[in-house]
Amino acid sequence: xxxxxxxxxxxxxxxxxxxxxxxxxxxxxxxxxxxxxxxxxxxxxxxxxxxxxxxxxxxxxxxxxxxxxxxxxxxxxxxxxxxxxxxxxxxxxxxxxxxxxxxxxxxxxxxxxxxxxxxxxxxxxxxxxxxxxxxxxxxxxxxxxxxxxxxxxxxxxxxxxxxxxxxxxxxxxxxxxxxxxxxxxxxxxxxxxxxxxxxxxxxxxxxxxxxxxxxxxxxxxxxxxxxxxxxxxxxxxxxxxxxxxxxxxxxxxxxxxxxxxxxxxxxxxxxxxxxxxxxxxxxxxxxxxxxxxxxxxxxxxxxxxxxxxxxxxxxxxxxxxxxxxxxxxxxxxxxxxxxxxxxxxxxxxxxxxxxxxxxxxxxxxxxxxxxxxxxxxxxxxxxxxxxxxxxxxxxxxxxxxxxxxxxxxxxxx
Amino acid sequence: xxxxxxxxxxxxxxxxxxxxxxxxxxxxxxxxxxxxxxxxxxxxxxxxxxxxxxxxxxxxxxxxxxxxxxxxxxxxxxxxxxxxxxxxxxxxxxxxxxxxxxxxxxxxxxxxxxxxxxxxxxxxxxxxxxxxxxxxxxxxxxxxxxxxxxxxxxxxxxxxxxxxxxxxxxxxxxxxxxxxxxxxxxxxxxxxxxxxxxxxxxxxxxxxxxxxxxxxxxxxxxxxxxxxxxxxxxxxxxxxxxxxxxxxxxxxxxxxx
Lengths: 413, 257
Known about the structure:
A: 4-stranded parallel sheet; 4-stranded parallel sheet; B: 257 residues; 5-stranded mixed sheet; 8 helices; 39% helix
C-alpha cells in the first residue's frame, strides 16, 4: 500500500519542483525572473512567468550551512559586512553560482520595496551587472495608520507601468481575465494560510514555529498557484486532526507559548529548534510567516495596492503595536522573543519601543537576542540559550504568582 | 539541610554553601571560570574547608555562563533569576538590579517576592561588560581592582567614543601615546561603561532601591558615576560577585524544602 502523503512530504516535493522547474525553464530558453519576497506576484503569475525568490533561496542556502563561502566572496568583492546577509549571499551567487541549491540567473527583475529599501540598490546592482530590465514597484512608507489616497494612486499607477513593462519583456499582451483568476486563487491561498496560522491559537498548539517557517516558503514562492492550495488543504486537515486529539507538537507538552518576532535565524535553526524543544517553549505565532497573508477583494486594485503597502516593516509604530497586542491575546502568549537581526535594520529599529508598548499594554514577558537571518557569525549559542531559559523562568514565576493569587481569591476563609 | 550555589561566570567561579537557607557555611571565589578546572576546584574547596562531602549537600544549583557544563549540579537556573534572589535576600527593598558580568550587562526589574518582572540585556557587543574593563585595565597596566582609584585622580576625563571593545582599545592606546594621562583615560573608561549600562537601566525605568551586583560593583567609581548618571543612590551588593551563588544556594534550599 502506498504511504499516505503528508503535508511535509508534499511541501518538500513542491519546493524541489519549484527550483528544478526554474532551471528547466531556463534550459528551454524561457524567461526567468528574480523577485523580492513580497512583490505583487499576481502580475507575473498572470503572464505565466517563471520566477524565483532570492531571499527564499538565501534562507535555504543558510539553513543548509552554505552561507559562509558566499558571504566571504561578497565581502572580498567589496560588499560591507554591515549589508543584509541575504543581499550578500545573492550578489555573490550571481557571480559564482556556487550553492548546493542552484537557481538560474535572471532575465528580468521584479522589485518591490515594501519590506526594505536595501532591496532597490541590491536589485539595481543585479540589473546593471547582467544588463537586464528591472520593474520597480516603489511603495511609500506609511507614517499614518493606513496608506494615503495619494499613495494608493501612486502605487496603482506603478501597477499600470508594471503591466506595460511585462508586455514589453515578454512580447505578449497582459490577460486581464487571467489576472482576475490569479487574484481569486491568491486570496483563497492567503485565506487558507491565515487559517493555518490561526489554528495555532489552540492550546496546545498543533504546529511549532520552525515548521511554520518551512511551510511559509510555499507562500513566498507560489501563493498564486493551485498546488499551494492543495498543500494548505492537506496541512489544515492534519492540524485539525491534531487539535481534535489535543496533541502538542512536543512529546512532553507545551510549557510556554511565545511569539518569535522577526526573521528566522536560518544558519542556526536546528540549534534554535533544539533549545526551544528542550525548554518546552513553543513558537505559536510569528510576525514573519504572517507577512504572506495578503487579503483583498479580487479585481479591486485600490485594495491590492493597500495590502502590498501594509507589510509589517512598512507600517507605523501604532499599527504594529496594535497587531502584536491582538496576537498576545488571540494566541494566549506567555512571552515574545525578539530577534535583533544584524541584517535587517529596518525591522530592528522599532523593536525597543515595540517591546515597551506591548509589555505595557499586555504584561507579556519580553526577551531579545542577537542574531542574523543568514550570517552564521552574528550569533552566540550560549547567549541565546541563557536568554531563552531566562524567559522561561520569568514566565514560570508569573504563572505561579498568578495561580497563588487565584487560590487566595478563591479561598472562602 | 545544606545546599550550595555554584556560579560559573566567564572569568571566575563562585560557590556559596548554605545551612537551612540562612547561615553561610562557606564561600569561595576562584578567578577562572567556564571551561576551566575552576568550577570543580571551587566547589571541592568550598565543601572540604568545612569538612563536608558531596553527599552532605542536599541540593546544588549551578548558574552562570557555564551552568550547563558543571556535572555536580542537581539543577541549572540562569544567573538572572539567581542574582535577583540573592539581591532580594540581602536588600529586601530592591526594585532594580544592575549586573555587569564578564560577558554581558543586565538591568533587572524586581517585582513582589524578589521575582524578575522585567529584564533588559546588552547586545552581543562587549562594550559595557566586565570584559571591557579587563581589556582596558591591561592596557593601563593595572589590576582591574585598581581602576577606580586611578580614575578618581583624573583631572580632565576623556571621552571614549568607540563602543566596540577592539576599536576602543585602539582609541585608548592612541590617547596614551599622545600624552593623555592614565588617570584621565581610566575615568573615561569608567564613564564609557556606566553610560552604556545606564541606558539599559533607564529603558526598564529606574526604581529605588537600585542595587548593583557582580564583581564590577566592587569598583567604587563605577557606583559613584552610576549614581550621578541615574540621579538616584546605588547600593553595592554586600556580597558582590558572590550574590549569584548565594541566590542559587537559596533557590536550592527552597526547591528542596
